[in-house]
Design brief:
By secondary structure, this protein is mainly α. The protein is built from six helices and no strands. α3 packs antiparallel against α6.
Amino acid sequence: MDIFLYVVGVILLIIGMIGSLVPVIPGPPVSYLGLLAVGISGMADFSREFLISWAVVAVAVTVTDIYLAPLMAKRSGGSPAATRGTWIGMLVGFIFFPPLGIFIGPFAGALIGELVGGSGKGDRAFRAALGAFAAFFIGTVLKITVCGVMMFYGIFAPRFF
């Protein structure tokens, strides 16, 4: 059972890391479940405080990522259409133009969203697109960092290494 939980934990850590780039998978929470599985397996000696701290970090990064794009698009002068465009662009870019589409999609989506459904002004749309892209980039870097550290602990902390 210990080996099974450890393998499940490592798989969840890998899926969590993928989720840092794929918008439909919540990367940090999935990575945390992997870290928790490794801890429960008995293969690693994670303290209760360690696991609680990482739960707080996973939730904080996820909430920040969800609210950062709309906030940055709005603070950059964008409308809700720019925010919706960011998410649509992210999905379209990921599906049809990987791997660069993941980065170009949010910018293009916010720009098109603002031009079509927002103010329709080019300069305002460009600022909103830059804000949405910056938020996406910051959120992605945060998620990759958090998931990477959890993966490190989950893979290199077990007793048998």
